[in-house]
Amino acid sequence: MTRGHQRVPFPLGGIISLLGVLLASVVVYDLYADIVVQNNRPLTALLENSLPLALNAGIIASGFWLTQHDNRDISKQAVIWTGISITSLLLLAVWVYSLQLIQGQLKPLILLAQIASMGAVAGIVVGVYSGRQNHRQRELQSLFQNSRDCIAKVQFENETPLIQEVNPAFESMFGYTTDDAAGESLDELIVDSQSKRQATELSRRARGGEQFETEVTRTTASGDSRIFRLQALPIDTGRTTTHVYAVYTDITDSKRHTKRVNALHSATRELISAETPEEVAQRGIQAVSNILELPLSSIFAERAGTLEPVASSEAAKELFDEIDTLDPEKSVAWRVYESGQPVKAADITQVETIQNPQTPIASEMILPLSEYGVLIIGDTEAGEFDDEDFTLAQILGDNISTSLNRVDREQRLRAREQELREQNERLETFTSVVSHDLQNPLSVATGYTELAQQESGETEALEKVEQALERMNSLIDELLTLAQQGESIDEKEPILLDRVASKAWETAATEQATLEIIDDGQFNGDRNRIQQLLENLFRNAVEHGGASVTVTVGAIDSDGFYVEDDGPGIPADTRETVFDHGYTTSETGTGFGLPIVNEIVEAHGGTISVLEGHDGGARFEIRDLETSN
């Protein structure tokens, strides 16, 4: 394919050619007059007019060349400067000649000097202008040659963008030198079939003088498809444009990174919504393919001292007949699992320990998945992973680990909730049995005992029966209370310590006992249960400290309170067992009072501890209650 050239309309270059013909005609007439009319020697006449004839011939040839080859700008400037120079010289000659005629004396030397001065000025102006243009051209050429962007200088022939020159960056990226590309259509050289329509439209816009920027896909000589930001920079922004700089900035890596990051965000959302470890593993494998575009991956879980495969990509299943369990002594993956440090092997043959030396995997990345196992990503080509691959793989591994831990917590929570539901069902059954199946016959036995006392007069034996029945009734009440206080609390309300303590004291203590409220406090909870807690602690103090015991209640920091008495206290070696069901040191106690207290505290999310009081008695501290703002 040959380069095309834009013809310049005749009036531009033709004007200069006609001028040359006119001037040549004047010289030829002068030559004729010297030889024929004045009978001068022909050789002298020819020598006199040879230089003008040569100059005139050059003017004619220049005009013809501009007509055939150069563009409108150069031809236009040539015509303008030619006209300015001739006009200036003629005006100067007329001015000087006129003044000499007025003076009555012609001075050829002065006329010649003036004309030479005008020519010198014209030469200086044109020289400065030409020098500045050359300097600008050198700067543009330097930018063209040294730019990191790929640049092609294009000239349009009709609608076809023909390459005139390409810079080194273009040669390096696309694989075509200027010698290879010159005269070729830019669209035919680097545009694939899918982008032809877009390329045609872009050429039309550039041909119309539009300067624009857009995103395109272009193909290199090796067939590699890459993404560029294309800038069209017309040299002439008139109605039509013949020369354009096409500037290509490679954004393939940037677009690839953005795509990967978006895929990572999408995969994270998918992992968050998974509900089982198996589902997390499957979605993690899919994420490897979507983010890293690597088809070979597997997730291994720790089972009984080995790493067993739990999820693998389809490509991995096809490559291996069976994905083996990884042996701790022969597997790098086990060291990664134990250390928690990821490994990237560009060439797996350089790894010291390989479980299967015949493996088709040439390079791999191994990422720890917390306590669960490892993620292995492989490739059949050596050195296929770059730093971005490894970084994204680590982030993905962390996200998979987080999702696995979350699923494990949720499963344990669901199991605990199920256990609590079953426990509550058993408690409800127990409560029903105690309240109906035991209390009813107990009430009957109590009634017949009273009747027997009235009819027989035998009181001693029947009093013992009555005491036993009363103890059984107390045990039933305590058991029912214990079953109810362990239930969860749905709603809490602000509770003032002094008020609930005073109310509990009214129902739990004897007239001889004393209550002292030292510090008031406020917290959130179930008012009835907190009152039950205090009543039990007050009864415990009276039961073990005597009817005249003094009980002190006060706040602890902002999230708890204490109940302390001046009784005999609780031995240090038994403080851990006082909350056990049925434990009591009192002959009349049921052993359920303090366990009920413990159940109420736990239902509120708090903690309780037993200490020695300031006066040697027992001190119960309840902490970590929900505070009121």
TrEMBL record:
Domain PAS: 136-209
Keyword entries, A-Z: Coiled coil, Kinase, Membrane, Phosphoprotein, Transferase, Transmembrane, Transmembrane helix, Two-component regulatory system
Superkingdom to which the source organism belongs: Archaea
E.C. number: 2.7.13.3
Protein name: histidine kinase
Any Pfam family: PAS_9
NCBIfam families: sensory_box (TIGR00229)
Ranges that cross the membrane: 12-29, 49-66, 78-97, 109-129
Enzyme class: transferase
Chemical reaction(s) catalysed: ATP + protein L-histidine = ADP + protein N-phospho-L-histidine
Entry-linked SMART domains: GAF, HATPase_c, HisKA
Signal peptide residue numbers: none
PANTHER family (alphabetical): HISTIDINE KINASE 1, TWO-COMPONENT HISTIDINE KINASE
CDD domains: HATPase, HisKA, PAS
Taxonomic path: Archaea, Methanobacteriati, Methanobacteriota, Stenosarchaea group, Halobacteria
Coiled-coil portions: 458-485
UniProt GO molecular function: phosphorelay sensor kinase activity
Limits of the Histidine kinase domain: 433-623
